[in-house]
Amino acid sequence: MPLLPAEPGTPAAGAGAPRPRRPDLDPRGPRFGAGITAVLLLVVVFLSLTGASAAALSLLVVLAALFAWGAIAGAGRHPWGLLFKRFVRPRLAPPGALENPAPPTFAQGVGLLVTLVGVVLGLVGLAPAVGIAAAAAFVAAFLNAVFDYCLGCQLYLLLVRSGLLGRGPASAG
């Protein structure tokens, strides 16, 4: 994922005051979290394929809650990010550069959307949707963990470049 320069805060919805920017991230943190998430999503797919639909749905609900945590609190405050900061990062050399937290946080929102679709469809009785949603999210988490390619981050950059994201009222026009 490309490293971005720090962006100034964007206006909060309806408040008109700039929102404080989240601190920059060690780019290895989201990859670490993606690895854990990929394993858990693979477990959901396995459970779904073996007929353990209730267990698969339950684990997908937990993962959706974790994605919500990351999307709302920020990728740096996600439980996997906190584990990385506390136990892994102290054992590593400092990162070459830090990254803007906005793309990984947006990617958490994309993960939330994908897993929520699976949860909702699973709750209305479409059990195969749980495994399908988990498989789709697994592909994204796997790409991030293994190849450092964040699909949600790339979507974020595409939306920023197209002008659909990242424009405050002062710069629109």
TrEMBL record:
Pfam families: DUF4395. Residues 26-161 form the DUF4395 domain. Residues 1-18 have a biased composition (Low complexity). This is DUF4395 family protein. Keywords: Membrane, Transmembrane, Transmembrane helix. InterPro entries: DUF4395 (IPR025508). Residues 1-28 are annotated as: Disordered. The chain crosses the membrane at residues 29-49, 55-76, 110-130, 136-159.
